[in-house]
From TrEMBL:
The lineage of its organism: Bacteria, Bacillati, Bacillota, Bacilli, Lactobacillales. InterPro entries: Prot-tyrosine_phosphatase-like, Tyr/Ser_Pase_IphP-type, Tyr_Pase_AS. It comes from the Bacteria. This is Tyrosine-protein phosphatase. Pfam families: Y_phosphatase3. Belongs to the protein-tyrosine phosphatase family. Gene3D superfamilies: Protein tyrosine phosphatase superfamily.
Amino acid sequence: MEELTNFRPLAGYSTLDGGRFKAGLLYRGGQIADLTPTQLAFLRDRLKISKVIDFRSLAERTQYPDSTWSGLDYEPIDVLVDAKKSGVSIEGMVYHAGDIGDVMLATYEQLAISSSAQQGYQQFLEELVDTPQPTFFHCFAGKDRTGVASALILKIAGVSDQEIFDDYLKTNQSRKKANEKILAQLSDQLTEAQQKALGQALVVDQRYLQRFFVTVNQHYGNFETYLTDGLKLSPNFVTLFRHQYVDRV
């Protein structure tokens, strides 16, 4: 099958209390515009994906609309609509050439504390519990907005921090070919400094996700309070989530 960029299941991870994250329910990746018939059939028929959550902006969705299929529940949730300088689009990455690391760190702060991110992740997580079904969630590259969403899921499930960061960093290998293609296509349009900045922006760095969790702790004291006071999730949400998504071994 033709490769789906940065696509992988959230499954099989061990939890600190002896459980295992269930397979066949959650998948993460990059945008799914212009799927081939084989790719679409893989998502629809093989994996039985019945819901897609799209974290991209309206402009991104308009330029590259997702491929959909009959019976699919497609839901856009723009988690960075409040961020003024997110740097998550290619244009933003190029514009900030030279200080892209600072831009990305600021983006992860926004993903922790902006109203749109908190409301968006609240909606996303509550729907996972209220209507569990094979779900694919994504943004443009499947690395930042999606990376935080994945980290939230695994943290709530009780997966170790080491495995959470390992899953996050898999993106750099999974996106290698796609990133090389983007850089090649834009090489004659960008200065050397812009190419370097874009190359840096197209990968993830452990510091970025660390900044997200540090920001959470700075504003809420701990992750549990962030869930209840920041994301406005119910006090028993973690229990409900683990009941749906974690098997007891």
